[in-house]
Amino acid sequence: MIRTLLTLILTISTQQLWAHARLLPGGNTPPRSNDTGLKSGPCGNIVKGTPVASFNSGQTITLQWEETINHPGYFEFSLSTDDDQTFDLLLTVPDEKNSRNDLPHRYQAELKLPDGITCSNCTLRMVQQMTENPTNPRPYFSCSDIEITNSGQDTPMDPIDEDKNTVPPVTEDCH
Prior knowledge:
Blueprint: H1 2-17, E1 21-23, E2 53-56, E3 60-67, E4 73-80, E5 88-94, E6 105-112, E7 119-130, E8 138-149
Parallel strand pairs: 2-8
Antiparallel strand pairs: 1-3, 3-6, 4-5, 4-7, 7-8
């Protein structure tokens, strides 16, 4: 009985550990779930949470993720600002470590967040697109709940001319 139970526990933990791909839990964009085998979009049916990381609009961030089973293909990184309804593709990274057997494969890439976008509860999504069968690519999903704020620079409000009820013209300051 104990041997059967241990075998079952080892089988389940191995299946979850060696699934496919995920954002790294210790990275600056921790995933909603540590599961590497989430097959359904947009985020593996994992409920959206509160932001786990905060970035500035236009900031370049370092993405970290891992692949736990070799598959030819690529990784797509997208952003949703509307509660996971739509995603805008920001970056595609080829799977260049597919021929190596030293799993897990760890990846890192720089991603520039869009300028002028702010959201208090956005989603950064990674999709591993496997291309063994080009007519039917198989995706795996990993999402991180993030916040994007303004550039961090104080933008002074223009004073209103109360007599004319207008905003004075802005003069550019050359540095």
